[in-house]
């Protein structure tokens, strides 16, 4: 009897093992087919395929957790809703300098938007200059106020903005406010609660505590937009917090650059806000209060470029690549975080090797040390190719600006890292204007204080170099 039971148990174990083996093969085969169809990067496809065959259960679990591009899939499901329709006259493309006609054609193909003439732009430094102008514009609004901010804190300046928004609503303006669901506070931001309590319509962008919606990492709206009556707009890098008022000597001062924009291109900025508000609230904003007919307000030519992990994926990064390729004499950029992908690194290296002056300004010390560590491990190819990298001394500067040949410039919310280029919803403005481009070029050049060399990198202790190299592996998520 014991022998029969033993044989039966043995046969059962063999059958169970065979079934598990078949199950493992089927899982590995199914996941491999998905990898082959979805993964465009060959190295990534080979790595994931090898892992799911070596360890079907563990490898599949890792692939389902980290390998699927839920960012793109979820964003397309949520953002691609019927767009608001308007009875406006299509904007006629503006003329650009002949040397930049190829860049203009490329960016038009990327964005689907024309360049727009008649733009007026005013540049502000820090919240000290930007906030008074923004608040004055809110006080002067008569029909509508649209505000979107990644960070909107319930501190002194935040309360001042909230009071101005409430006053605008009380005098009959339509007011809408978007706060990022993470940047302004992880769960229920205080500024959002105060706005809601005051009856000001405010929405949280991608706010959820459900881990599979990845609220703490991805799908953030990093845009900074303020639009008054559909006619005047502010955009750039300035968030709403006391730290941006450098003159008040906050504990951690944040320098930054912001822009006031007028003219027909404001329509493109308003459209970007309207799409985001429809996504956040389900409400379609229509009518003259939000989309009035606009007259020229200056002599600049501009265009808005939006980017995000949906149908707009990597549009800002692609525009950057096109601009680098079109550069003839100089490329100067400043960014608080510098971890571009290999394509952009290669483009900058090629530009430097063909004799173009390439200057990159990064903070000596940003507000995210882990990014600084990864940057030191990421820039060797640039230094080897002759790209000059400069360390901007404190206080921390959050500005993002690119100047090409002192004739074309690109400003807005996007940092030079994978998070901004691929994961966040961002907004930049390209401007064809020599005066503004030269001003930004001079602004960037003034920040070229201390050059970072290969010798500096080699002088790092071995353990520090190892730490930096390890952190660089997180590049897609930093």
From TrEMBL:
Pfam families: PLDc_2. This is Cardiolipin synthase. It comes from Methylorubrum salsuginis. The lineage of its organism: Bacteria, Pseudomonadati, Pseudomonadota, Alphaproteobacteria, Hyphomicrobiales. The chain crosses the membrane at residues 20-38, 50-71. Residues 217-244, 393-420 form the PLD phosphodiesterase domain. GO terms for molecular function: cardiolipin synthase activity. The keyword ATP-binding does not apply. It is an enzyme of class 2 (transferase). It is found in: Cell membrane; Secreted. GO terms for cellular component: extracellular region; plasma membrane.
